[in-house]
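> Could you send the Cupin domain-containing protein prediction when you get a chance?

Sure thing. Input:
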Amino acid sequence: MSTSPAPRDTDTPLALLGGLSIREFLRDYWQQKPLLIRGAFADFETPLEADELAGLACEDGIEARLVEENGPDKAWQVSHGPFDEATFARLDAKDDSQWSLLVQAVDHYVPDVAALFEPFTFLPRWRLDDIMISYAPTGGSVGPHLDNYDVFLLQAQGQRHWQLGGMHGDDAEIIDGIDLRILKHFEVTPGEDWVLEPGDMLYVPPRLAHHGVSQSDDCMTISVGFRAPSADEVVTSYADYLGASLPESLRYRDQGMAPVANAGELDDASLERVRELLLSTLDNPTQLAQWFGRYMTQPKYLEQLAAREPALKTHELVEYLEDEGVLVRSLGSRFAFRHGENGTSTLFVDGDGILAPQPLAEALASDQRLTAVLLDYTTADLDRSAVVSLLTALINRGSLILECDLQDEEDDEE
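Output:
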């Protein structure tokens, strides 16, 4: 039994991409140059209001920043949440208030925001990072800046004036002392200067200078960002993963070496032996895949994954699913898979790798509705009881949720 989705149509023009096909966008724009898309989302309505965003910024555990261009202490002051009502009252009392509120990972808390990821799944799901939402009154901005990742900037309400500059390398001059990459010097590229209305969207590739300024008192912008680990993060993480599994007996060897001319010299032959040791341990496609799947599914905010209490038992899960129950992926969870042999896959979920039947791994890592059909996704080596145990473990750790539990939580909040 297979759950593989039908092949995606990559050649049909899409309003989401300004009339380009997926193939054309990836070939000509992705990670290369910006794209303005008028009416990317027709008749767009914001998935949450400004006061709801401010409410999130006041909660513990939610990453929120307040950027003030003329702060109480200095220009370009950044404050970190949680905030309180007094903070927003102070801002409202200022006549020349130029500020922006930034709230990260809103998709982890608001299902309607999380749903905005779906139109972007022409890109790998494991590349999706989070959705940040910013709010600013007229004149508010975070300055001309750079990002190290791809981002789609969707105007949710109000208007924002965007100006683009050129690409910048590591030598870009950045204002010191704040955790934003605000440029000391910004020059607008002729013709790349627009005001975006609700439903309009701007794609910005990594390292492209951009500057957005609110043109209304209700400006809200949704930033759909993508994970892009740096080389130092990749090397460090992969080395740690390998180091935990390499045997102590695997060491530098120089059997059959030639006599040395100078006992104090690090000669070429010695360096080549070290190089071969490194390459032989690093160049392992199987280990690389196992590490990368775990690395790219690590949740951004671990506290979002709440263990289920009381723990669900396997027979309770079977009864629930056979009674037309549905499982739901936690908003903060990440799923991916890599197919192996004999009908099995590694299911990567929230930083772990778990052996699973191929159709089960595909289903969990998709947007497919999760029903009792999951119990039939078995192999000769992974029978129904193994599948039930796997799903129960994912529920008890918080990666999956019973839909009825989710409904109970929503009812309690109301």
